Amino acid sequence: MSEPLKNNTSNTSFGSWGWIIIIVGFLLMGVIFGTGITLTGFIVAPAAEELGVSRGDITMMYTLSGIANIVSLTFVGKLFEKYNLRKVMSISLFITGLTYIGSQFVTSVSQLYVLGVIRGLISGTTSVIPVGIVTNNWFGPKVRGRAMGFVTLGTGTCAMILNPICAQLVANHGWRSVHLLFGGLSFFMIPIIMLFYFTRPEEKGLTMIGAVENIQPSQLAFNGLTEKEAMHSPAFWIGLLAISFAGVVGVVWNFNNSSFLVGLGLQATQVGLMLSSYSIAMMVGKVVLGILVDKKGLKFVMVLGIFSRVLAFICALLVPYNIAFVWGLIAFLGIGIADSTLVNPLIVSEMFGYKEYGKIYSRFTQLSNLVNVFTPTLMTMLSDASGYTAMWLACIGFCALSLILIMITFAKKPTEMKLEPVTEN
């Protein structure tokens, strides 16, 4: 006879297994997701110079990888329902590591494209989607914001540590050494996932941590909309555009931060210091915003994130006149962009519930990535043609659109989505 489940709904402490799940998610968001997103700026310029192509040509690798990721997200939610999440993640991370090692031998940009496409096809199963699924399974509405804040803190923390390392690797050993590091980190995560990253608390004889009173955690799976119902809701599509437009500016910054700062006449060590400071600001932002989600609500945090982004790009416009504004850019953008990985999984559960969370979150991520897939290439081309001023003004425009759409999204929240007790049939 199996042991009874230990109830965690009456408290908001994470407990030992709760912290283990948070730490593993933290590492995944840092050394897997973070390396492929926040550290790409170190690759673009030196790879373009070595291979004799433009920065836009190198950025196209990430565009193609993004397209491949979008295609794969059609099946990711169903894949995790059918197969063991830990095994799927481990296989995908092994292949990811091989693609990074393979970049040591490329001699043309087309070969980079092939490796990028392979990586994109499996990227949906390595970090963001499974981390969102597992975190939502383990943590209830009373603590989910804080839990997600700590998990997504990994992106900034690891970036802070790896930024100066990557800067020195590029300076001393070339851009390929950075990909070699990324490959090693992919292999490093495999045994950790297999040993510790359990999909649901029930697998360890526990129940959801911080669930709402009077609602059994087992009932949460019956609350909310199906994937089909969610996609017929105006909130899905309007919220999708709101998230996508807000995410555009983060993508633009990550792909252009190093070259922008170097263009100001800063040395590699100074750039590394500034980007590490940006990572610290993002770390602080994730913790603070996670707490604010639980206390003030998701809408408040999303609006705050937009205003922080706008202030950041105003500072970016002023940097050519006074270099001191770069610190305002770093501080405001670090806090503003901190909400990107935090908000996405939370808005899906808040708007559409838990019934088919994995499927809806995969679809939501797929479509938001579709909106953003061409952004790096197009915005880099814009900066090449018209300079950084035009690009920063475009980012402010995206923020304004996102703010309007956020307000409409919450006004259109499905009336069917109510967190109330239900009776299991």
Descriptive notes:
- The protein is mostly helical and 425 residues long.
- It has one domain: Growth Hormone, Chain: A (Up-down Bundle).
- Helix content is 76%, strand content 0%.
- The protein is built from 17 helices and no strands.
- Helix 10 packs across helix 16.
- The chain starts with 14 loop residues before the first helix and ends in a 14-residue tail after the last helix.
- One of its GO terms (cellular component) is plasma membrane.
- Its main location: membrane.
- InterPro entries: MFS, MFS_dom, MFS_trans_sf, Proton-linked_MCT.
- It is a multi-pass membrane protein.
- It is found in: Cell membrane.
Structure characteristics:
425 residues, disordered N terminus, Growth Hormone, Chain: A, mainly alpha, 17 helices, MFS transporter, MFS
How is the topology of this model organized?
Elements: H1 15-37, H2 41-51, H3 55-82, H4 85-102, H5 109-123, H6 128-138, H7 144-173, H8 176-196, H9 227-231, H10 234-263, H11 268-296, H12 298-318, H13 325-337, H14 339-352, H15 357-372, H16 375-386, H17 388-411
